[in-house]
Amino acid sequence: MFRCTVLASGSKGNCTVIRTERTRLVVDAGLSCREIVKRMRFAGEEPEKIDGLLITHEHQDHIQGVSVFAQRFRIPTYFTGATHAAWKRILTPRKTMSYLAWLEERKRIAATADATFVAHASDAEEQSAGTAVSTLAASVEQPALIEEEYSTALPALEFFSAGKSFTIGDIAVTPFTIPHDAADPVGFVFEAEGMRIAVATDLGYMPPNVHEQLRRADLLILESNHDVEMLRDGPYPWSVKQRVLSRVGHLSNDAAAEFLTEAYDGYARWVILAHLSESNNLPELARLTAERALQRRALHEACSVLLASQTMPLEAITL
Ligand SMILES: [Zn+2]
Ligand SMILES: [Zn+2]
């Protein structure tokens, strides 16, 4: 048995379970731990039995629940070195001074260096205000430090590199580089029992190395992020539109269809369209665009097109 369950897909969170009878992997933890657990239980998966959590890249919609989920269930977490460093940077609070800390600092300097200022400030009202500030500042700073240690600590940390295959249990994992505006983003090919599942989302275009990796996939999870017209006319600021449309942004419905028409080998029994934008796409439009592409090659009967959803798990596909 080789099975794939997309628990969530889209800019508000991504999470997928890939498993055999013996090995259970999770790709990305882009929802809160609580939501991941809820969706896993709904899909009949047990978070207590996960053997590995693999991270594609450090964007929020792929990492939101990583530390809490990994720690709570003692799951080894797999990153590339650059993605791990970027993830840690994101979780480390900036060292700029808060207003409360600044007040506290000013009070401390005044108390030690300027006796006249302190005498003046020891007016009852100011002093009590000062005490309140100092207590509040302490209570704000303390948990922040604990949180920092807590959030980047993982029960077990494993590194991988794009292009180098490794195995977890009875699943072979091949990470491959994708063009996206993150430190070291990857897609994955998973192989077990002679079958392949390929995951390619969050990519600006389809370079030849990605075509190569998606060959002979029995199940293909392919980004179909936006309709170009909807994005152009849609609510995003121009800078964001440019980012999404760029070579390191996201794959449009047309780009996914172009791949299915021209470079795709026609092997898969399932294509799951994923990472659909809620603002700049319509599920039926994405489906229609992909199905037309398959029809042009008379592949539509051999291949089912499914839509991954942001709000609920897609029914498990057993290969
Ligand atoms: Zn994403
Ligand atoms: Zn991303």
Task: Please characterize this protein's 3D structure.
By secondary structure, this protein is an alpha/beta fold. It has two domains: 238 residues, 4-Layer Sandwich (Metallo-beta-lactamase, Chain A); 54 residues, no CATH class. It is built from twelve helices and 14 strands. Strands 6-5-4-3-2-1-14 form a seven-stranded mixed beta sheet. A seven-stranded mixed beta sheet has the order 7-8-9-10-11-12-13. Strand 9 and strand 10 form a beta hairpin. About 11% of the residues have low confidence. One zinc ion binds next to helix 2. The site of one zinc ion has 5 residues, from loops.
Which range does the strand content fall in? 15-25%
Bound molecules: zinc ion
Radius of gyration: 24 Å
Q: Mind summarizing the main beta sheet? A: 7 strands, mixed
User: How many structural domains does the protein architecture include?
Assistant: 2
CATH class of the largest domain: Alpha Beta
Class from secondary-structure proportions: alpha/beta
Fourth-level CATH superfamily of the largest domain: Ribonuclease Z/Hydroxyacylglutathione hydrolase-like
Helix content: 40-55%
CATH arch. level architecture of the largest domain: 4-Layer Sandwich
CATH topology of the largest domain: Metallo-beta-lactamase, Chain A
Short description:
The protein has 319 residues and is α/β, with parallel strands linked by helices. It contains twelve helices and 14 strands. The chain has two domains: 2-80 and 160-318, Ribonuclease Z/Hydroxyacylglutathione hydrolase-like (Metallo-beta-lactamase, Chain A, 4-Layer Sandwich); 99-152, no CATH class.
